[in-house]
Amino acid sequence: MYTPEHFEITDRDEIAAFMVRHSFALLVDAGETAPVASHLPLIYDRDRGPLGTLVGHMAKANPQWRRFADGREVLVVFWGPHAYVSPSWYAGAPNVPTWNYITVHATGRPRLNDDPAAAKAMLERLVDTYEASFETPWRMDLPPNYERGMIGAIQPFEIEITRLEGKAKLSQNRQPQDAAGAVAGLEAQSDPEAQAIAAAMRKAGVGS
Known about the structure:
32% strand
């Protein structure tokens, strides 16, 4: 990922928190003749491996997992808020439009896991994670035959991360008055994504 120094996220705690918060990710591999991607919820185990490990699954009907055995690296993209920035919000001129955003790229080598008990534990953890905020969380208490059929239809895997890259493009390269104008312009929008980017800019001290 192209990341100028002023956009780089170097704080491991910040990167870890971002991956947990934005856990519905894009898993990409080179494919046999063209790149292939799957959209998946992934659990981040920070303490497994030097940079952590991602745990997830995909449908066995999805052929992407069959290439995991060849040991090639895959890329996992976690994306957060993003918003258009109008040059009309800047104090100076001339200028052009841009896009502000936050993302994390994790690279690693996947390993398949065919243990049914581990698959069930992974699914229970996934369910508990996403049900935790509900007033009455759903629990994975399924009829045994149905549960076996569901687990048999998925392919669990793990990705030990070998490289982590974080990027927060938040107008850090702009003059303070231009960045302040961008924050004000974003805050004036009804779009929640624009509001989130404005909040991230203020938190980073951009435009203040």
